Amino acid sequence: MTKPLIISDCDEVLLHMVAPFKEWLEEGEGVSFHLKGNNFGTAMRWADSGEVLEQEDIWRFLRGFFDTEMHRQKPIAGAVEGVNRLAEIADVVILTNLIDAHRDARAQQLADVGIHARVFTNQGPKGPALQAIMDELQPSKAIFIDDLAQHHQSAKETVPGLGQLHLCGEPMISSHIDCAHKAGHADARIDNWAEALPWLLGELEKEAV
User: Fold this and answer.
1) Residue ending a domain, choose from 41, 72, 103
2) Are residue 64 and residue 126 in the same domain, yes or no?
3) Number of domains in the chain
4) Could you tell me if residue 112 is left (phi over 0), alpha (psi between -120 and 50 degrees) or otherwise beta?
5) Whether residue 78 sits in one domain with residue 67
6) Is pTM beyond 0.85 here?
């Protein structure tokens, strides 16, 4: 019999990303980062002029961060312990929106903080990637954890029966992002692992009843 499966995002679910990205930009790249609302694009401005960065510059800095600065990312409180507790009763894999060239670095980054899991990379909506994972692993039950509402919508529309938890562990952005639970695309919204872990364990235990 196959085990249940946890499919978890990484950035802002397991590891902080926006906070160290902001620190790096403001430390030596001449860019200020101030998020107002949930528009990530307008948060980045040239420090000297105050002008919003062009899209190509935003992507260039994001690529640069993941090329050389992933060591700055620290675990979300409770995430390492939470994932390892889940791994006692379920398979755990990571679905992260990074280019394929960053897959091994992401896996090593997670291993370095104590999370040993297979990493799948993806670009764009996550629904098709989730379906591919489900088709390959054929779990008895699966729960998807992500911090962004659009990925929960994609999952809901693509993978019937998938459990979904909206979790954003970064206080800098958690209050600004749309709620997938309110939109009807996630089963719950919990932004800390202290409460998320009991919820996840409860959902997994339902399979055994």
Assistant:
1) 72
2) no
3) 2
4) alpha
5) no
6) yes
Q: CB neighbours (10 Å) of residue 152?
A: 29
- For 53-92, the pLDDT digits (tens) are 999 999 999 999 999 999 999 999 999 999 999 999 999 9
The verdict on 130 and 158 lying in the same domain is yes
Q: Which of 125, 137, 185 is nearest to 160 (CA)?
A: 185
Map residue 76 onto helix, strand or coil.
coil
| 79 shares a domain with 31 | no
Looking at the structure, do residues 61 and 82 belong to the same domain, yes or no?
no
Spell out the residues 6+ positions from residue 152 whose beta carbon is closer than 8 angstroms to its own.
Answer: 144, 146, 164, 166, 180, 183, 185, 186
pLDDT (average), residues 117-122: 98
Q: Which residue has the tokens 């998807």?
A: 144
Residue range of the domain that includes 109: 5-16+74-208
* Nearest by Cα to 121 from 94, 154, 144, 150: 94
Q: Are 61 and 80 part of one and the same domain?
A: no
Cα–Cα distance for residue pair 48/201, rounded to 1 Å: 49
Smallest CA-to-CA distance from 76 within 208, 196, 163, 156 is with 196
Query: Would you say 37 and 176 are in contact if contact means Cβ atoms under 8 Å apart?
Result: yes
- Single-letter amino acid, residue 6: I
Beta-carbon contacts of residue 7 (< 8 Å; ≥ 6 apart): 93, 94, 95, 130, 133, 142, 143, 144, 145
Sign of CA dihedral 28, 34, 40, 44: negative
